[in-house]
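Chain A, query sequence.
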Amino acid sequence: MIDDVWLAKHWELRAAAELKVATYFSALLREVLATGAHPKVIEMLARAPADEVSHAKICLAMAEHYGAKNVAWPAPADAVLARPEGVSRAAAAAINLVAHCCINETIANAWLESCFAMAKEPAAREALRKLLADEIDHGRVGWAHLASEQLATETRQVIAACAASLIKANIAVWTRAEPDFPKGGAPDHGIPGHEETVAIVHAAVDDLVRPGFRKLRYAV
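Chain A, predicted structure.
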């Protein structure tokens, strides 16, 4: 049986993760502004850091809902963007945007949809609904950038060369087992178990991520 102490801690950890993503989006925005992108891509990306801060607040409220007292704002977290050797700054920005938005956020969207579908607890359903609404747009940022005519040929070639490895890396992060995580999760509270999460991730990659790349003529 899952107790409220575990549920509260789970949401506290999610708050910290959301704030770290806000930092990552801010770093991405800096690089995209410096290297150039379609104005619509920049506009969508600029909203993302504030969205993630709001997500952190939602998660902290859920921790309090499950009984946590004096929930502290998450500690500061830095974000380091990858810069592969021999790759231009613009291509590196695109690689990071693709890895985070096209892959990670698309998987996150599928995972949150599953969380929402299984949740029965009213507060959890409402929190997941709010989180899900923004994740859809965050994924679109990366796909819009990939489809943009402003993306240089060199950058397209770099992304084509590393897309498969980016997918593999994201799968590894999403499917790693957490030692203190209950095997069956807490479905009524919108938290799938590890095996279900693994299935969700692979389905998202096979049904959404890979077809998205192929539609834009990137073989993965």
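The domain at 4-76+85-215 is CATH 1.20.1260 (Ferritin). Residues 30 and 86 are 20 Å apart (CA to CA).
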